[in-house]
Amino acid sequence: MVELKVGDLAPDFKGVDQDENPISFADYKGKKLVVFFYPKASTPGCTAESCNFRDNYSDWQAKGYSIIGVSADSVKRQKNFATKNELPYPLIADEKKEVIEAFGAWGPKKLYGREYEGIYRYTFVIDEEGKIAHILHKIKTKEATQQLYKELSL
After folding, report:
1. Confidence of residue 81 (pLDDT cuts 50, 70, 90)
2. Catalytic site residue 46?
3. Among residues 23, 34, 35, 46, which one is catalytic?
4. I need a labelling partner for 151 at 20 to 30 A (CA). Which of 12, 36, 56, 139 fits?
């Protein structure tokens, strides 16, 4: 399992977004980027987190950041999720888990004593040089932006 650290180069990822447009790390070269991973579109926690980024999207843009959400959902499910919640940023449909695994956001989880493999709710902040500037492992879904602003001193 990959374990990225602050200062590491971000993985060179490629995928497709909810509109089947190709999307890659190269598209964001020289830009600041927030990449957040969520377990499943349209679930309560994932909706709260995605909508928190939506509600603060213009502020993120004003601070010079782009945002990308990533889950293992299909393009169709990502499209429905983005449309229903009016999400203004791309959502990568990573059904093969290539981007998820490249960032180390996949592995063993436990819920109600049951162990299974799943997506970790991680958020990565990447600087203009393509290096990981911050990693957030314990996300408060309704306060994701505020939590990041506090930790990044923005």
Report:
1. very high
2. yes
3. 46
4. 12
